[in-house]
C-alpha cells in the first residue's frame, strides 16, 4: 500500500470499558492494543442502567495514552472506526452539551414506554431500544426533553466529538425502534408516535463506506489527533463485531459472548420476525444482519464467580475445571438466567430462578456449571427461532473473551447442535472498527474494494473445532424442554421464544 507509517484505529466503546486495536495495513497485522475499564453509575433505582458519555471520552484518552507508550503516534493514525454499545440514548442541547447521562441498552426502566409504543405501532419495540428511552425522557424529565436538540447513539456521540458532525448510519440506527431496516430509512410514523417534533432532532444518515468527516475541534484539542485523520461511519458493536469476525460474507454465523449474548449472520435481504424477537438489523457495510440478543451472558457467570471467594482465588481456570467435573445437567437442576430481565424471550421485568435444588446444588462449581448451562440453553432457544425463520446455522464462530472457556464451548456446541470454532481475535468489535476505517480510507482514495476483501488478512480462527458431544446433546435437548416448561410456569406463554 506504500504507506508504512499509516495506522488504522478501531475503538470499541462498550458497557464495561473501551478497547482499542491498531492495524498496520502495510504489514497486515495488529500492532498495538489497549483497554480502559469503567462501570455503570451506581445508586440508581431498579431497572436503571446509565453511564455519562464523558466517561467514554476519558477512556478514549486513556487508551490513546497507552497506545502512545506502545509507540503509536497519534498523528500517524490515518483513520478511525468507532464501535459503540447499541441502543443507548445520548441527548444533546442546541449547543451540543449533554443533557443527562445516557440510558443504556440494558436499562429496563422504560418497559412501560416500550409496551405503549408496541401497541401504538402494532409491532414489537424492545424495552432496550432507544425509542422507549426518548419517550421516558419526555414523560419523566420534561424540562430536559424541552431542551433536547439532537438524539445520538453512543458511537454517534464519539463521532460527533471527533468531527463536530452529528450523523447516524443504518446499522446502529436499526436498533433505535424508529428505523425501518428493510427500507434502510427512518420510520416517520414511529418517530411521530414518540413526539411530533422528534424528526427535527434526529441527524441525517450516512451510507456504508462513507466518510463522516475529518478530525476537528474537540477531536484535535481533546484527543491530540491530526486534523487529517479520517473518521469512518463506525457502527453498533454487533455490526462492528460482524466485520471483525468474518460475517462480511454470507454463511458465517457468529455467537458473541459478552455482557449480553448475541447471534448474527450477514444476509443479502432483510429477515422479518413477526414477533419481533430476531432483530432485522442492517449491517454497517451495505447488507443486513439478522440478530438475536439475550441480555444475560457473562454477567451471570461473573455473579457466580464472585461467590467463590478464596476457594478458587478468582482463578477462572480452576473454577471451570471444577465445574467440568460436575455431572452435566447438575442432577436435573436449572438456572433461568434472567438476572437483568430478558429480551429474547420478551421478559423485561423477569428475574432469575433456580429450579430443582437438592443437597450439594448450591456449591460454587455446581452453580457455575448451572450458569453456563442456563445461559447456553436460553441462547439456544433463540437460535431455534432463527432457524425456524430460515437462518441456516450449520457451524458457529465464537467471539468474545468467554470464547476461551473450553467448558462453555462444549456446552454451546451441544445446546446449539452445531460445531463451534473460536475466532483468533477476541476483541472483534474493535478489530471491526479498524477494518472499517481501513476500508473507508481506501475507498476515499478511489479504490473499488469490498469490505470482505479488506478484512480477509485480519480475520482468522484458531484451535480445534468443537463438535457436539452426543451425550451432552441428548442431555441438553431434554433440559431445554424443562427450561421452557418452568419459564412458562413462571412468566407465561411468551417465555417460549420458539412459538
Structural features:
35% helix; seven-stranded mixed beta sheet; single chain; Nucleotidyltransferase, domain 5; 499 residues; 20% strand; 16 helices; alpha/beta; globular; 24 strands
In the CATH hierarchy, the architecture of the domain at 7-240 is 2-Layer Sandwich
| Overall pLDDT score | 95
Class by SSE composition: alpha/beta
Total beta strand runs: 24
Strand content bin: 15-25%
CATH superfamily of the domain at 7-240: ATPase, nucleotide binding domain
Q: Could you list the spans in which at least 5 consecutive residues all have pLDDT below 50?
A: none
State the helicity in percent bands: 25-40%
CATH topology of the domain at 7-240: Nucleotidyltransferase, domain 5
CATH class of the domain at 7-240: Alpha Beta
Q: Number of helical segments?
A: 16
Largest sheet properties: 7 strands, mixed
Supply Rg: 22 Å
What does the overall shape look like? globular
Instruction: State the distance separating the first and last CA atoms.
Output: 52 Å
Structure description:
By secondary structure, the protein is an alpha/beta fold. It has a domain at 7-240: ATPase, nucleotide binding domain (Nucleotidyltransferase, domain 5), CATH 3.30.420. The protein is built from 16 helices and 24 strands. β1 and β2 form a beta hairpin. α2 crosses α3, α9 (237-245) crosses α14 and α13 packs across α16 (470-491). It is globular.
Amino acid at each position: 500500500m506504500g504507506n508504512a507509517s499509516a495506522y488504522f484505529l478501531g475503538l470499541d466503546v462498550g458497557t464495561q470499558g473501551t478497547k482499542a486495536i491498531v492495524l498496520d495495513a502495510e504489514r497486515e497485522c495488529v500492532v498495538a492494543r489497549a483497554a480502559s475499564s469503567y462501570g455503570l453509575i451506581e445508586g440508581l433505582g431498579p431497572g436503571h442502567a446509565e453511564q455519562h458519555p464523558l466517561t467514554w471520552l476519558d477512556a478514549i484518552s486513556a487508551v490513546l495514552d497507552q497506545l502512545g507508550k506502545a509507540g503509536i503516534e497519534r498523528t500517524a493514525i490515518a483513520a478511525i472506526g468507532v464501535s459503540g454499545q447499541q441502543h443507548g440514548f445520548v441527548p444533546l442541547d442546541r449547543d451540543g452539551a449533554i443533557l443527562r447521562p445516557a440510558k443504556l441498552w440494558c436499562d429496563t426502566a422504560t418497559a412501560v414506554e416500550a409496551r405503549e409504543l408496541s401497541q401504538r405501532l402494532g409491532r414489537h419495540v424492545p424495552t432496550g431500544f432507544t425509542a422507549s428511552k426518548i419517550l421516558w425522557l419526555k414523560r419523566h424529565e420534561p424540562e430536559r426533553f424541552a431542551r433536547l436538540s439532537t438524539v445520538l447513539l453512543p458511537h454517534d456521540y464519539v463521532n460527533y466529538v471527533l468531527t463536530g458532525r452529528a450523523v447516524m448510519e443504518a446499522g446502529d440506527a436499526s436498533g433505535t425502534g424508529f428505523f425501518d431496516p428493510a427500507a434502510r430509512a427512518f420510520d416517520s410514523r414511529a418517530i411521530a408516535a414518540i413526539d411530533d417534533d422528534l424528526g427535527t432532532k434526529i441527524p441525517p444518515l450516512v451510507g456504508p463506506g462513507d466518510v463522516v468527516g475529518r478530525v476537528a475541534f474537540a477531536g484535535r484539542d481533546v484527543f491530540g489527533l491530526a486534523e487529517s485523520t479520517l473518521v469512518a461511519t463506525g457502527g453498533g458493536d454487533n455490526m462492528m463485531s460482524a466485520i471483525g469476525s468474518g460475517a462480511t460474507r454470507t454463511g458465517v454465523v457468529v455467537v458473541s459472548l459478552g455482557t449480553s449474548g448475541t447471534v448474527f449472520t450477514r444476509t443479502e435481504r432483510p429477515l422479518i420476525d413477526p414477533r419481533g424477537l430476531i432483530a432485522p438489523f442492517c449491517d454497517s457495510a451495505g447488507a443486513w444482519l439478522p440478530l438475536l440478543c439475550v441480555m444475560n451472558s457473562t454477567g451471570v457467570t461473573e455473579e457466580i464467580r464472585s461467590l467463590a471467594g478464596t476457594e478458587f482465588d478468582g482463578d477462572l481456570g480452576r473454577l471451570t475445571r471444577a465445574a467440568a467435573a460436575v455431572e452435566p445437567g447438575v442432577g436435573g437442576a436449572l438456572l433461568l438466567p434472567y438476572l437483568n430481565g430478558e429480551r429474547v424471550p420478551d421478559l423485561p421485568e423477569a428475574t432469575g430462578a433456580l429450579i430443582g435444588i437438592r443437597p450439594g446444588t448450591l456449591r460454587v462449581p455446581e452453580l457455575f456449571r448451572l450458569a453456563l448451562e442456563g445461559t447456553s440453553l436460553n441462547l439456544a432457544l433463540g437460535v431455534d427461532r432463527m432457524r425456524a425463520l430460515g437462518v441456516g446455522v450449520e457451524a458457529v464462530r465464537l467471539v468474545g473473551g468467554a470464547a476461551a472457556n473450553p467448558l462453555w464451548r462444549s456446552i454451546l456446541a451441544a445446546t446449539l447442535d452445531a460445531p463451534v470454532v473460536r475466532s483468533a481475535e477476541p476483541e472483534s468489535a474493535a478489530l471491526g472498527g479498524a477494518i472499517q476505517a481501513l476500508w473507508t480510507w481506501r475507498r476515499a482514495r478511489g479504490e473499488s474494494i469490498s469490505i470482505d476483501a479488506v478484512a480477509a488478512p485480519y480475520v482468522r480462527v484458531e484451535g480445534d473445532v468443537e463438535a457436539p458431544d452426543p451425550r451432552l446433546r441428548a442431555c441438553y435437548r431434554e433440559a431445554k424442554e424443562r427450561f421452557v416448561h418452568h419459564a412458562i410456569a413462571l412468566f407465561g406463554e411468551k417465555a417460549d421464544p420458539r412459538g
